[in-house]
Design goal:
Elements lengths: L1 H6 L1 H18 L15 E7 L5 H16 L5 E9 L4 E8 L5 H15 L5 H6 L2 E5 L5 E4 L9 H13 L10 E6 L2 E5 L18
Antiparallel strand pairs: 1-3, 1-4, 2-3, 5-7, 6-7
Length: 205
């Protein structure tokens, strides 16, 4: 077969050109996603019950919301964490990777509204926050002082003012959580992120 094309180079070139043209035409219709969804979307619910312990949070706040949230469309699982230090309940609801995060957020808000009448009055006064979230960070930003001229408190304050707050202003930017004295964790269900670091101030550390 190889001798056939060696002896007939014009035929080989014509076949090669046709292969390229057909490939270029068919590639436009292929079901290929440049940034496929690989992280299941999540919604985070936060409620505050001042002065309560973990058991009270679980029974009075987490249980009513879980009962209403159970069976929501395309939900994989959910879990809650009760912090007694500030009386805050955090619930994470994980949805299927093929779902729309905006639809998942709306469904979670509807179920939370149905459970509002069963919550203590002090919890409803503070309000229940429902927002898109992800447990896996998409980006970790760390600051350090190479010359040791600034301590951890200065770096933490600089990060909170100049990095943690401006990031959400960018389109499709992830939600950020201040989680350490010198680091910020950013996570999002979206698979595209902006690169806002060029717009942030760069002091001499």
């Amino acid at each position: 077969m190889s001798k056939f094309f060696i002896n007939r180079p014009i035929v080989a070139m014509v076949i090669a050109i046709l292969t390229v043209i057909i490939g270029a035409i068919t590639i436009l219709g292929l079901p290929i996603s440049q940034f496929p969804n690989i992280v299941p979307p999540e919604t985070k619910l936060q409620a505050t019950f001042v002065g309560s312990d973990a058991e009270t949070l679980a029974q009075s706040v987490a249980t009513p919301i879980e009962e209403q949230m159970s069976g929501v469309d395309n939900m994989n699982y959910m879990y809650s964490v009760n912090a007694t230090a500030n009386g805050q309940m955090t619930m994470i609801v994980d949805f299927g990777v093929q779902t729309d995060p905006n639809t998942d957020l709306i469904l979670s808000q509807i179920r939370e509204t149905q459970a509002a009448s069963q919550l203590p009055s002090s919890v409803t006064q503070y309000g229940v926050t429902v927002q898109k979230s992800t447990s896996a960070p998409l980006m970790i930003v760390a600051l350090y002082s190479p010359h040791g001229t600034h301590d951890a408190k200065f770096l933490a304050n600089y990060e909170y003012i100049n990095i943690n707050d401006p990031l959400p202003a960018f389109r499709e930017s992830p939600a950020c959580r201040f989680s350490a004295p010198d680091s910020t964790r950013c996570g999002s269900g979206s698979n595209r992120t902006s690169s806002p670091t060029s717009a942030l101030p760069h002091p001499t550390l």
